[in-house]
Specification:
This protein has helices spanning 2-56, 61-64, 144-150, 411-415, 462-475, 486-499; strands at residues 83-85, 92-96, 108-115, 117-120, 125-128, 131-140, 162-172, 175-184, 203-210, 221-222, 238-245, 248-260, 263-272, 277-279, 282-283, 300-301, 305-309, 312-319, 322-327, 332-338, 354-357, 361-364, 367-377, 384-395, 398-406, 430-437, 443-449, 453-460. The protein is an alpha+beta fold. The radius of gyration is 28 Å and the shape is globular.
Length: 506
Amino acid sequence: MSEDRCRAKCTAMLAIRWHMFRVCLSIAIVAMAATMAFTYFSSRNLERVDSKSVYDSDLGPVNRGLRGSNEINLDRSYWSGRKTGGGGGGGGGSKTRPLDPVIQAVERQCHDFAMGGYLFNEHGRHSMVTEDLVTCLVHSFSPYVEQEAARRFLDPARENVYFANSPAILWNRGELVLVSRIWLDREKYEPKNDWPSNHFADNWLYMQRFDDRLQPVSNGSILGIPAPKQWWVGDGPIEPRLVEVQGRLLVTFNSAMAFKQNRPIDYTIMWDIDQNAPVIPHIEGGTPMVNATDKDDMPRDKHWMALVDNDRLFFVHNLDPLRVLHCTLAGFCKFVHRETDRTRFIFSDARSHLRGGTPFVLYRWPYYVSVAHTTMYKKTNHHRYYTAHVVVLSVRPYRVVYISNDIQIHPKLYRMAPMVRDRYIDEGFIFPVGLVLDRDYNLDIGVHVNDYSSVLIRVKKFRNLMERVIAVDIQRPPIRGPPVGYLNQHIHDLLVNLTHIDMVHE
């Protein structure tokens, strides 16, 4: 009996000790979880404090990045972040737009250069700003996107040639959205009339989402946009751009279509990604581009540059003369700023060199930044000459503040991308359509190189440039922007001087 009582007592003690062990273990786990949570949120707060100390301190790296900063007296509110304003050129606001995530990628083929540029007032250019910048290749979407897109075409003969052009990019819901033009190079078959067995429209749009390391987080897809087919070459949706406004993700692009019988126009369209439906803009009074085209030519109203101000959608319709549209999400558009001269000049191929580009991204209200392209024609053979330039715009009042010289990249990137359309273009070029400004103030540009490949180019030290541009503009605020035609003349003269190539300007 004594042995049984002893055994029972020991069993009971073991059960009690096991229960106490489980209780202690649970308490320890809860304590560890609480500690980890506290550490995480504390570190997040510390990051915010450290970030503020780096970007807001009058004695920190910001001023060391300014050339001649001792001559520029800026208060602390200058470094308060990228603020949104009152919309439509109205008064300033106090909202701060969150900065975009940093794309985590290896920077390659970096190129150091001094980028010059000019600020403008109502008379013309008035101040030159030059800053040492670095451009790097961050990522190439090619040949991945071409291969993924080709898999989705019913083309078992495989006679079509696919190129990914115009990589539009935008952060949306924590993911980097890519919409790229897929160009089926049908021009190569045109001279001999030896068309491929399977016919498609020349242009399509491919969409996919990526994480901050540019790893796919969704399947790619061809956007089902039933664009009309007008000719054997050159139809379908072209040159996409991405914009988010009022919680809706929109792709803008241009496509040839007819509003009246036998009256086609290459026009800008908005495509609502969530609704999977088009929004065809209706401009009050009609598009002015109809009056800027010879009777034998098709009007072209494209390359609109989206700008979101106070969660309202605007488009820079043209840079010189400067025209700005406000559009509702239903597609009703009205000019809120429209410049002209005595000749009522609108557009000309031989004179309008500075054209559209990426959407405008808020830097610090009222200053927005974009990268625009220029189209020039060489006098010797009338071949095209393309360049890309940083453009700074103020929305109070609407005016072009600054235009840089052409953005330079490593020469090897041009050599790695064969010139696809060498019948029309001689020199290597980049064509910008996408833009993100991250929390490190890198400017990541979605471009295609020589019509051959889609890549991301990063402009480093970009904040130094913007700080100087805005500081000079604040010190000498113009009444308005430069006269109509001045910017196009400036770009022409600048590029002729830099390249020593005679360019057409009429």
